[in-house]
Recover the amino acids of this structure.
C-alpha cells in the first residue's frame, strides 16, 4: 500500500508538509510523476512550481539519490529492496475551486495538485492520513477508514479527491434514493440554510429522475463562502467544490441564483464528465495535454442543463430562467469567433487559450456557445417527440454506467437515432459543430418554437451601437465590431479621451491615447446597428414549451 501523510506545521507560511511512503524494488527505477493539470480544467497548471525541498530517505534515514527527468517527473533507484520516505513542501496559496489554500482557519487542497503518481503502481490503493490536530473538522471525499485516515482504490480516485480541514464548518444533508448528499458550508452564512438545501434537493431529484440513477452512494458539496468577490466550481466524481463570494451578497435573491446555478452545473457533471467521458480521458493522463473534440458535450451540454434543471425542478420560474439565458445569448451576440473556429476546434484549443479572452474573435466559448447549440438540438428533438435529456440518459446507460469512453460521433449517433430524418442531425453537426455557420438564425427559430421571442434593441450608447466600439470603465477599447468603419481606424487597448458626433460633416471625431501617443481620428458615421441588446420575452403559448419545461 502507498501511504500519504498531510500536515501543516506553520499555517502562516502557507506550506503543506507532505510525506509519501512506499516500497522500492532493488534495481528497478521508480518514476514519480506530479500532475501538470487537473480534471475539469483543460489547461496546464504545472503544479511542480509550488513544490520545494523534495528529499528521499530509507528506513535508516539514509539519503537516496533523486534524479529530475522532466519539469514534473523524478526518478529514484535503490540497490536493495526497501521502503522509502519521500518528503516535500507544497505551497497552498491559491484559493479557487481547483487549487489549495492554508490559513489560520482551514487547510484546503485538491490532491491532484500535490500528490505524486508512482508510475507502475497507479492501480494500487493509496491511504491518506491527515495530521492536522488544530483543524478538528476534517473532510476528505474518499472512503474513511479511521479517525483521520481515508482510502483511495487507485491513483485516479486519489487525484479526484479534495481535503477540507477547518476549525469550523457547517453541515446540511439530504437523501434521495440510495444516495446521501452532504453540503459543507465553510465561511459566513448569510442565507436561509433550509431553503437553500430544499433547492439543492429539488434539482438533484429532478436530474436523478431523468438519468434513472446516481453514479455514487455519497456526494459532497463543499462550499467555500468567501468575504471577497469570487465565482468558481470544479466537478469531482464524489463531490464538488464551489468557491463563491462575497458571502454577504447571498442575502440578495439574484446573487443566490448564481450560487444555485453553479451548484446545479457542477452536480450535472457527476454524470457528464465524471462518468460520461470521452475516450481520451479514460484514464486521465495528468502528465501532458490530452486533446478532445468534445467540448460541446463536456461544457456546452452541462451549461445548458445546469440552468434548465433549475427551471424543470421549479427552483426557477420561467422569467427567472429567461433572464439567465438572456445573459448567455447576449454574450454570444457580441462575439464572432464562430467565423474563425468551430466549437470542435475550440475544444482542442482549450489547452492553448480556452480560459482567457485571447485575441479578438479567434475562437468560440465552449460553455456559452455550446449551451446555445444544445438548446437548438433539444428543441429539434422535442419536435420529434424526444429530448436532449433522453439522449444524455442514453449516453449514461451506454458509456457512463459501464464507464467506457465515447467519441463525438457517438453523441451525434445517439441524437440521430431519435429523429425521423437522421440526415438533419448530420447537417447540423456539419454546419455548427464541425463547421463555422452562424447559429443565431437557428436559435431564434428554436426559441420561437417554444413561444419565446428574441427582441433586439439599442440603448442611447451611440459609440456601442452606431460605431461598434466596446469600452471598459476606464474607457479603454475592448472590442471593435469587425464590420464597422471603426475597425479600420481604432485599436483594441486605445483609451478614448474624447468622442464627438459632428452633425455637419456626419463624422465621428475621436481622440485616443495609444501607447503614450495622442491621436485624433475622423471617420464617417454609420447607419448600421452593432451589438444590439438582447431581450427574451414569453410570446404566444406553445405546446412545446410545456414539454421543454417538464
Amino acid at each position: 500500500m502507498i501511504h500519504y501523510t498531510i500536515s501543516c506545521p506553520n499555517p502562516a507560511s502557507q506550506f503543506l508538509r507532505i510525506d509519501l511512503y512506499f516500497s522500492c524494488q532493488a534495481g528497478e527505477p521508480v518514476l514519480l510523476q506530479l500532475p501538470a493539470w487537473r480534471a475539469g480544467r483543460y489547461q496546464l497548471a504545472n503544479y511542480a512550481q509550488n513544490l520545494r525541498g523534495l528529499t528521499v530517505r530509507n528506513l535508516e534515514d539514509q539519503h537516496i539519490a533523486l534524479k529530475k527527468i522532466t519539469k514534473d517527473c523524478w526518478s529514484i533507484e535503490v540497490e536493495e529492496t526497501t521502503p522509502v520516505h519521500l518528503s516535500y513542501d507544497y505551497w497552498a496559496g491559491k484559493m479557487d475551486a481547483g487549487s489549495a489554500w492554508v490559513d489560520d482557519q482551514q487547510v484546503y487542497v485538491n490532491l491532484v495538485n500535490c500528490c505524486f503518481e508512482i508510475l507502475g503502481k497507479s492501480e494500487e490503493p493509496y491511504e491518506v492520513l491527515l495530521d492536522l490536530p488544530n483543524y478538528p473538522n476534517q473532510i476528505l471525499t474518499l472512503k474513511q477508514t479511521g479517525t483521520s485516515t481515508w482510502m483511495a482504490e487507485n491513483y485516479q480516485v486519489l487525484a479526484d479527491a479534495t481535503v477540507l480541514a477547518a476549525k469550523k464548518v457547517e453541515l446540511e444533508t439530504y437523501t434521495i434514493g440510495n444516495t446521501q448528499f452532504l453540503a459543507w458550508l465553510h465561511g459566513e452564512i448569510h442565507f436561509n440554510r433550509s431553503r437553500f438545501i430544499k433547492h439543492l434537493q429539488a434539482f438533484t431529484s429532478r436530474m436523478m429522475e431523468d438519468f434513472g440513477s446516481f453514479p455514487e452512494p455519497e456526494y459532497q458539496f463543499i462550499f467555500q463562502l468567501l468575504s471577497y468577490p469570487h465565482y468558481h466550481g470544479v466537478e469531482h466524481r464524489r463531490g464538488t467544490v464551489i468557491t463563491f463570494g462575497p458571502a454577504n451578497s447571498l442575502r440578495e435573491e439574484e446573487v443566490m441564483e448564481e450560487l444555485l446555478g453553479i451548484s446545479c452545473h457542477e452536480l450535472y457533471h457527476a454524470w457528464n464528465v465524471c462518468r460520461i467521458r470521452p475516450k481520451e480521458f479514460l484514464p486521465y493522463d495528468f502528465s501532458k495535454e490530452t486533446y478532445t473534440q468534445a467540448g460541446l458535450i463536456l461544457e456546452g451540454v452541462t451549461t445548458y442543463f445546469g440552468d434548465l434543471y433549475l427551471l424543470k425542478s421549479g427552483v426557477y420560474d420561467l422569467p427567472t430562467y429567461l433572464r439567465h439565458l438572456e445573459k448567455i445569448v447576449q454574450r454570444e451576440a457580441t462575439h464572432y469567433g464562430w467565423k474563425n473556429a468551430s466549437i470542435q476546434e475550440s475544444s482542442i484549443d482549450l489547452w492553448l487559450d480556452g480560459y482567457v479572452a485571447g485575441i479578438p474573435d479567434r475562437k468560440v466559448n465552449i460553455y456559452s456557445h455550446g449551451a446555445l447549440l444544445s438548446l437548438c438540438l433539444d428543441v429539434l428533438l422535442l419536435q420529434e417527440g424526444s429530448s436532449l435529456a433522453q439522449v444524455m440518459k442514453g449516453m449514461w446507460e451506454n458509456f457512463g454506467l459501464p464507464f467506457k469512453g465515447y467519441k463525438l460521433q457517438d453523441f451525434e449517433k445517439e441524437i440521430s437515432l431519435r429523429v425521423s430524418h437522421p440526415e438533419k442531425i448530420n447537417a447540423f453537426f456539419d454546419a455548427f459543430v464541425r463547421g463555422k455557420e452562424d447559429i443565431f438564425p437557428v436559435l431564434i427559430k428554436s426559441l420561437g418554437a417554444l413561444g419565446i421571442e428574441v427582441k433586439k434593441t439599442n440603448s442611447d450608447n451611440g459609440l456601442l451601437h452606431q460605431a461598434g466600439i466596446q469600452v471598459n470603465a476606464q474607457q479603454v477599447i475592448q472590442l471593435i465590431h469587425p464590420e464597422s468603419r471603426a475597425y479600420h481606424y481604432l485599436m483594441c487597448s486605445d483609451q478614448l479621451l474624447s468622442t464627438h458626433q459632428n452633425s455637419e460633416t456626419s463624422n465621428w471625431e475621436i481622440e485616443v491615447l495609444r501607447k503614450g501617443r495622442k491621436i485624433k481620428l475622423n471617420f464617417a458615421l454609420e447607419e448600421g446597428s452593432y451589438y444590439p441588446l438582447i431581450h427574451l420575452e414569453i410570446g404566444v403559448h406553445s405546446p412545446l414549451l410545456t414539454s421543454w419545461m417538464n
